[in-house]
Amino acid sequence: MFHVPTSLLDAILAEDAPCGDLTTRALGFGGQGARISFTARMPQVVACSEVAAALFRHVGGHVCFSAPSGQWMPAGEQILQVEGSADALFLAWKQAQTLMEWAGGLASDTHDIVQAARAVRPDVVVACTRKAPPGMRGLAIRSIMAGGAVVHRAGLSETVLVFPEHRAFLPEDGREAVKHLKQSLPERKIVVEVTSVEEAMVFLETGADILQLEKFSLQDVKKLRTFLNGLAPNQPVPLLAAAGAVGPDNAADYVRAGASILVTSHPYFAKPRDIQVLIRPLSSKCDH
């Protein structure tokens, strides 16, 4: 379970209400008891509900119910219900709603890709890239993991991925450098991005653990897989990671072609999932 840092909650509130909620304060009903309910308007995978719940607790609300991140939620089902003073609930309302709608879009799109891929091969891995907007990566990681994917690269500091752009600065197109990485970073998987079958053949000799196939056609993925299947039993075989333009519509095709890993940024462009919000004066206890 991810910890929700107080600094994140403070930042979310400070962005929207650095001096509180002027409208609610001016209307004068902020001290009244209230209840806020969030309900799915469309089917979706719940994501970042724990952050939304923590946000309400942070302003003094009492969480009556919170569906866990990763749960498939049909339309009309409740995701979150909170009670507290009206000023507290109005303060966190829109930030919590917008966060869960955005996160639900990421998680739902990720879920669709994972389901499509695993219908062909149950052990295939869907890995989402670090293409979240700056400052949003932590929330994006929560969301894609709620959808069933893993993190491709959380950042530059812990993974080794040699791009063609790196190799432009190295002799022999980086082949010797990649071999050296296997020795100098023995506890790390060495990933090399290639853009053609010919490049992939070259880097087979370097001992790379994973070949990331950038925008390969299905035919080229299949061609490379067929070649690897014919290697001698004692020869190391890298994993094939299909990357670039992988989404729900073609995920299964890339798995059939021979990819063991699907690397995708598709969820980051997903449409948010609508959530209906109802706020009313408090007249009874939590009813979920």
TrEMBL record:
Alphabetically ordered keywords of this record: Glycosyltransferase, Transferase
Top-rank taxon: Bacteria
GO BP annotations listed: NAD+ biosynthetic process; quinolinate catabolic process
Residue ranges constituting the Quinolinate phosphoribosyl transferase C-terminal domain according to the UniProt record: 107-277
Classification via Gene3D superfamilies: Aldolase class I, Quinolinate phosphoribosyl transferase, N-terminal domain
Domain Quinolinate phosphoribosyl transferase N-terminal: 21-103
A GO term for molecular function: nicotinate-nucleotide diphosphorylase (carboxylating) activity
Coiled coil segments of this chain: none
PANTHER family: NICOTINATE-NUCLEOTIDE PYROPHOSPHORYLASE [CARBOXYLATING], PYROPHOSPHORYLASE MODD-RELATED
UniProt similarity note: Belongs to the NadC/ModD family.
Name of this chain's protein: Putative pyrophosphorylase ModD
Organism, scientific name: Acetobacter lovaniensis
